[in-house]
Amino acid sequence: MSVYNKIIQKLINDGGKLSSFTIVLPDQTTYKAGSDDDKFKVIIKDNCVFREVALKGDLGIGEQYMVGNIEIIGDLNELLRVVYISLVGQIEPNVGTQLLERLKALVITNIKPRSLKNVSAHYDISNDFYSLFLDKTFTYSCAYFKDDSDTLEQAQLQKYEHISKKLMLKEGETLVDFGCGWGGMLIYAAKKYKIKGYGVTLSKEQVALANKRIIAEHLEDLVKVEFKDYRDVNGQFDKFISIGMFEHVGWEFYLEYLKKVKSILKPKALAYYIRLELKISNIEKVLGLIDIFFQEANYLLLI
After folding, report:
1. Distance CA 8, CA 26 (A)
2. N or C end of the chain: which has fewer CB within 10 A?
3. Is the pLDDT of residue 3 over 70?
4. Packing angle, helices 48-56 and 95-107, rounded to 10
5. 103 versus 162: which is more confidently predicted?
6. Longest distance between any two alpha carbons in the chain, whole Å
7. Rounded to the nearest 5 degrees, what angle is found at the Cα of 217, between the Cα atoms of 177 and 240?
8. What does the pLDDT look like over 212-240, one tens digit per residue?
9. End-to-end CA gap in the chain
10. pTM above 0.85, yes or no
11. Which domains are delineated in the chain?
């Protein structure tokens, strides 16, 4: 039995305990899970799906869905719930693909020119594009929902308030934001806590809109966003924030990144990092770096 037949069988066996659904393969082989009426049905239309999943892992699933080789009928949220609970960590690229990913990582290492290219390719599509799915704060990171009825904008503002309290922001303090995006955190902190904010990003589109929003809020004397690599930031600040940017730094630059943060913070400053994801296998590396670095650090790290 192939590894992906095993995965399908595991999905049927374990997923069948959670829900009822059907999977149909290209040769019309049909697998039924659960005893109730189907909540969803997955139809795999082409055998190339298995090759793409083997090469790209769960990314291959998403791409094959987009091109129409995977059809989903019924409750998509239920499907995602079942797959996540049953198969989390099961669908990984094969050894050859992992080797290619390591080679690719060597090519796209985040030296300054490459960082600029990577950020621009992702964020300089157009602000109009991001406005289609972001809220009014233009926040492109996880939100803090206190209640199911919260809007996305409410949740993002709640996240900003949570961060502000963690940092114990006070009027007149200076706050620096690495990878500040469209300036949402700095604008919020300046309006509510009257801090002086400084943010950097390598997206020209983000800089343009961030400064337009700053002017619209009459915060020119309090907030400034510049087109700059974090490695080129100088000055001394009371507080530091980085939301969803740390994972883009690259392992080989983590220590350099931490040293840069240390160099621009005043004694007894506070730094707050929000990282979007961290593989279990990498936790020891991060903790090892932090342990070594903070033996002589001059600020408190909040994660």
Report:
1. 14
2. N
3. no
4. 50
5. 162
6. 68
7. 15
8. 999 999 999 999 999 999 999 999 999 99
9. 44
10. no
11. 3-87 (3.30.1050.10), 120-302 (3.40.50.150)
